[in-house]
Amino acid sequence: MKPDTRNPDSAARRIVQDPRWAAVIARDSQAADQFVYAVKTTGIYCRPGSASRLPRPENVEFFDTPRQAEAAGYRPSGRSRDDGSRIAGRHAELAGRACRYIEAADHAPSLAELARFSGLSAYHFHRIFKAVTGVTPKSYVQAHRNKAVRKQLEEAPSVTQAIYDAGFNSNSRFYEASGQVLGMRPGSFRRGGEDAEIRFAVAQCSLGAILVAQSRVGVCAISFGDDPDALVRDLQDKFPRANLIGADREFERTIARVIGFVETPALGLDLPLDVRGTAFQRRVWEALREIPAGSRVTYSQIAARIGAPRAVRAVAGACAANVLAVAIPCHRVVRTDGSLSGYRWGVPRKRALLEREAGAAGPGNSTA
Questions:
Q1: Per CATH, is 8-76 categorized as 3.40.50.150?
Q2: Looking at residue 313, what is its pLDDT?
């Protein structure tokens, strides 16, 4: 952060020629959420609209975001902190309006269309939307369409009508993606899973009864419980007309692998998964799958990892919505003070899994 004493004229010329310098000189508050400038001689960074004394250009360094400036060792000015709070509120409002626009549209809005609606460049809108929601605009649009088509399949007079009402431009494009969106053909989903094959098995492990179910896409449920019959009823309630197939020899090997991992975490678990959720939930679940066995992270750490540091409550909600115990290891997420919060299958099971993994990892394990 020291001035460029080797060739200050060259450094100054480079900054003066940068179009961002003009915004700094003009104290353009409209550019306040587009970049920040840091001052090498003071170690602080400011926004373009700052009323602070203008620095010499050779002492200036530009960054796209405050986070980048802070990573380089700069600290915010007091005025920049206040501006940041106002800008964060403005960004949240902008992202909220864009989400409502997507949800009200009768088609899948493009990035260019959303940027025009928001009055921003495509690059700037994409960056703000992802920072606020934790997902890209494209992922949000896709997740909303997937949710809409599930709803339409339950209400529309035909599968074709449901597909078009949900914003898909053609039957063929949707049918190509239907396995990932629904886990089965659209007609089967519409009939409550009729004709869909879901293999399942219930067994006993040290944590009680365990149910593992698998669609044609991959494992779609791993559940713990005290009552095996209740676990099967829950699966039947989800797909009342599906063709539920009891374990054959091949599928018994799958449930044996899951139980083996529960009992001995060092074995690892690598299975094809049928993961169904919103774009944000899937982003959280992907982050959970990257946590090594024997490590623990906090909800706020996961929020930061997915680029949505303010979405701590939403992260907790995504953990609670997980239906794939151990395969998506939400049990490795704890409160900031290290205490164990709620767990879909009971806090005692969460504690047992963590203790087992800690023992397998040895004395060197710590918060990831």
A1: no
A2: 86
Is residue 330 among the annotated active site residues?
yes
Both structure tokens of 166: 């949900």
Please determine, for residue 191, whether its predicted confidence score (pLDDT) is greater than 70. no
In whole angstroms, how far apart are CA 196 and each of 223, 240, 319, 323?
Answer: 20, 11, 27, 19
Four-way CATH pick for 197-267: 1.20.58.100, 3.30.160.70, 3.40.50.720, 3.30.470.20: 3.30.160.70
Other C-beta atoms closer than 10 Å to the C-beta of 179 total 14
Q: Does 279-361 match 85-195 at the fold level?
A: yes
Catalytic residue from among 46, 99, 220, 319: 46
The answer to whether the predicted template modeling score (pTM) of the entire model surpasses 0.70 is no
CB 267 within 8 A of CB 217: no
Query: Which runs of consecutive H residues, i.e. helices, occur in 264-298?
Result: 279-289
What's the number of CA atoms in the CB half-sphere (13 Å) around residue 247? 14
> Can 319 be counted among the known catalytic residues?
no
Q: Return the number of other C-beta atoms located less than 10 Å from residue 313's C-beta.
A: 10
Q: Residue 90 pLDDT more than 60?
A: yes
**C-alpha distances in angstroms, 130 versus 14, 98, 133, 306?**
31, 12, 5, 9
* Chain center to CA of 208: 31
| CATH of span 279-361 | 1.10.10.10
Residues 360/266, Cβ–Cβ less than 8 Å: yes
Nearest Cα neighbor of 65 from 45, 92, 82, 44 is 45
